[in-house]
Amino acid sequence: MTYPPLFPAFKPLELNDRDIIHPRVQTYQPTTSELTFTNLFIWRKTYHLSWCLAGDCLVFLSDSPQDPWFFPPVGPSPRADLCRELLTWLKSERGMSDPRLERVDRRLREEAAKAGGFRIDPAREHFDYIYATADLISLAGGKYHSKRNHLNSFQRAHEHTYEALRPKHLPACLDLAKKWCEIKRCEEDMSLMEEWGAVTEALNHFQALDLVGGVVFVEDRLEAFTVGEKLNADTTVIHVEKANPEIRGLYAAINQAFLEQVWQELPWVNREQDLGEAGLRQAKLSYHPHHLEEKFTLRLA
Q1: How many C-beta neighbours within 10 Å does residue 249 have?
Q2: pLDDT of 241
Q3: What is the 3-state secondary structure (H, E, C) of 120-152?
Q4: Are 147 and 243 found together in one domain?
Q5: In this structure, is residue 211 part of a structural domain?
Q6: Residue 119's pLDDT is what?
């Protein structure tokens, strides 16, 4: 096979593809959380992910045997004709009666709307939550009163320290992720099992993916960790955040400390989507997002 693969010759996503994919994604300056090499890589097994190049664009295929679909092509405009070609290919080569592109960002939505010939629908469950970094660090004002209470309660009750996540911390982070899954009974929930797989991929390839993280020790025991990276020039994206759920205020503590120590120069924080889960939506809304980064589903009209 030619490398890099050229449409319609797809190959499964692998770690050594990062050298080609990551610079192209960074040039695009994405605003949606999916469009990082890290997110695509750590969720590749869930998505059955393959990729190729089509002209100057990266194309990512979620090649599920029952329900294949495309991510939005990543690259320079114009892309509407390529979107039509991808949707037609899904119909002719994969037998999809209603082929679609998922997680389409506003830029591509505007291109497709201007070109015409597409049906474009908002996908609320995939909207990313965008917060002002300064708000999540200061937790100032009445709307953050309960968050400050949780954080103050934690700080009063526990001797704790924050450290940058280093390779020496990774085994303890994996242990904590396993403990979290035991408490949450991940084995009974397919979505939690898929998340567990993504978390372990992020930790096992932490250095190769060039990620940044933080940990909180409580009474000398690692009880929280978080992992993120720069999404674009103004925004960090938080890929993973896990804390012992039995310690009140610990999530607020790791969130605040990581942003304050690493990301305070960036104005925005993308904390990804809620996938339509009511509890997760409530938790994300409780931090008062500045706005939601919209995503859309694109089909042929």
Answers
A1: 21
A2: 97
A3: EEECHHHCEEEEEHHHHHHCCCHHHHHHHHHHH
A4: yes
A5: yes
A6: 98
| pLDDT lower than 50: segments of the chain | none
Pairing mode, if any, of strands 160-164 and 57-62? Answer: unpaired
288 lies in a domain? no
Identify the domain containing residue 110 by its residue range. 11-127
CATH of the domain at 83: 3.40.630.30
pLDDT of residue 220: 92
Q: Which residue has the tokens 């889960």?
A: 277
Burial 162-199 (b: 16+ CB within 10 A, else e): bbebeeebbeebeebbeebbeeeebeeeeeeeebbbbb
- Choose one of 76, 99, 127: the last residue of a domain: 127
pLDDT tens across 176-227, in order? 999 999 999 999 999 999 999 999 999 999 999 999 999 999 999 999 999 9
Q: Per the structure, how many domains does the chain have?
A: 2
Shared-domain flag, residues 59 and 181: no
C-alpha–C-alpha distance, residues 218 and 158, integer Å: 6
What's the confidence (pLDDT) of residue 46?
96
In a domain, 38, yes or no: yes
Whole-number pLDDT of residue 44: 98
Under 8 Å between Cβ of 77 and 106 = no
Host H or E run for residue 41: helix 37-42
How distant, in Å, are the alpha carbons of 188, 222, 235 from that of 183?
A: 11, 16, 32
Contacts of 260 (CB under 8 A, 6+ apart): 137
Q: Per the domain annotation, does 277 fall within a domain?
A: no
Apex 209 CA angle, 206 and 211, nearest 5? 60
Domain boundary among 98, 127, 156: 127
Q: Both 183 and 158 in a single domain? A: yes
Same domain? 149 vs 231: yes
**Which residues lie closer than 8 Å to 3 by C-beta, 6 or more apart?**
none
